[in-house]
């Protein structure tokens, strides 16, 4: 259900990457998880939220959630994932999938983290998310509608 994906995105932003005010965030997806990461970054006061997608039409929708810049990797010769910082993997791979990286990447100021259920403890972490929603700080309905529109499901406002 979408609630799990929202907690995954918010948890990736707050509990794992620990996004801080003035930082930059790069998001490679604009589904429920990516839009939730965007909201988490916006609420933490990030300076830049950069969206990466090969479909430029997604930029206008992503801007509504706080994406400040958009990069189409097809417009660049150099890989957009080169750099440093914290990488949070939020996708659930198939059992036969493999993740490969060169060991030198671990010495170049890079951090790789995984996440499960947003790394929330249900009794202590979830009430804080609900409180932010009740205060109107999280726009969950907007995320639900936007992600369903992207999946081709008809929605009504």
Major sheet: order of its strands?
Answer: 1-2-3
Q: Count of helical segments?
A: 5
Distance between the termini: 20 Å
Q: Name the CATH class.
A: Alpha Beta
Give the amount of beta strand, in percent: 5-15%
Q: In this structure, how is the largest beta sheet organized?
A: 3 strands, parallel
SSE string, helices as H and strands as E: HEHEHEEEHH
Are there runs of 5+ residues with pLDDT below 50, and where? 152-157
Average per-residue pLDDT, rounded, comes to 77
Q: What is Rg?
A: 16 Å
> What would you give as the CATH superfamily?
NAD(P)-binding Rossmann-like Domain
Strand tally is 5
Q: What overall geometry do the principal axes of the alpha carbons give?
A: globular
Assigned CATH architecture:
3-Layer(aba) Sandwich
Question: What level of helicity do the residues show?
Answer: 25-40%
Which structural class is indicated by helix and strand composition? alpha/beta
Q: What is the CATH fold-level name? A: Rossmann fold
GO biological process, one term: formaldehyde catabolic process
Domain Alcohol dehydrogenase-like C-terminal: 33-79
InterPro entries: ADH-like_C, NAD(P)-bd_dom_sf
Protein name: Alcohol dehydrogenase-like C-terminal domain-containing protein
